[in-house]
């Protein structure tokens, strides 16, 4: 019969190997990719994106000038298949200008990154 390494160790009275499982499931949040500053013209679409890691999977919050961004028809938040989180602003207006913060939180910590968005008025000639 085949014994798993753990059972084999028990048979010979060898001390059980230290469990490495714990550290894999306890990981503070971290950014693998952070946002970049952007400058757009009024009416353009803007997408800010980050890639994150952490166990358990961190909760993610988007803020503008320290106020939570409310999702809706103009502000769309999604997670892509490769684990990137995006916030898209449809048809940016000057009032969207500000410092955007992405905050990630799990029970082992909190991290955040920031980027500036500047929305310029349309140039009329």
TrEMBL record:
<dbReference type="InterPro" id="IPR036179">
    <property type="entry name" value="Ig-like_dom_sf"/>
</dbReference>
<feature type="domain" description="Ig-like">
    <location>
        <begin position="29"/>
        <end position="118"/>
    </location>
</feature>
<dbReference type="GO" id="GO:0005524">
    <property type="term" value="F:ATP binding"/>
</dbReference>
<keyword id="KW-0677">Repeat</keyword>
<dbReference type="InterPro" id="IPR013783">
    <property type="entry name" value="Ig-like_fold"/>
</dbReference>
<keyword id="KW-0393">Immunoglobulin domain</keyword>
<protein>
    <recommendedName>
        <fullName>Ig-like domain-containing protein</fullName>
    </recommendedName>
</protein>
<keyword id="KW-0067">ATP-binding</keyword>
<dbReference type="InterPro" id="IPR003599">
    <property type="entry name" value="Ig_sub"/>
</dbReference>
<dbReference type="InterPro" id="IPR007110">
    <property type="entry name" value="Ig-like_dom"/>
</dbReference>
<dbReference type="Pfam" id="PF07679">
    <property type="entry name" value="I-set"/>
</dbReference>
<comment type="similarity">
    <text>Belongs to the protein kinase superfamily. CAMK Ser/Thr protein kinase family.</text>
</comment>
<dbReference type="InterPro" id="IPR013098">
    <property type="entry name" value="Ig_I-set"/>
</dbReference>
<keyword id="KW-0547">Nucleotide-binding</keyword>
């Amino acid at each position: 019969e085949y014994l798993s390494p753990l059972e084999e160790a028990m048979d010979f009275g060898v001390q059980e190997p230290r469990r490495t499982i714990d550290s894999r499931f306890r990981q503070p949040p971290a950014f693998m990719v952070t946002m970049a500053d952007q400058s757009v013209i009024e009416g353009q679409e803007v997408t800010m994106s980050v890639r994150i890691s952490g166990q358990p999977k961190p909760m993610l919050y988007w803020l503008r000038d320290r106020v939570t961004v409310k999702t809706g028809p103009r502000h769309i938040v999604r997670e892509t298949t490769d684990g990137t989180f995006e916030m898209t602003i449809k048809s940016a207006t000057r009032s969207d200008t500000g410092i955007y913060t992405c905050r990630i939180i799990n029970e082992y910590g909190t991290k955040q990154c920031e980027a500036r968005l500047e929305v310029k008025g349309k140039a009329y000639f």
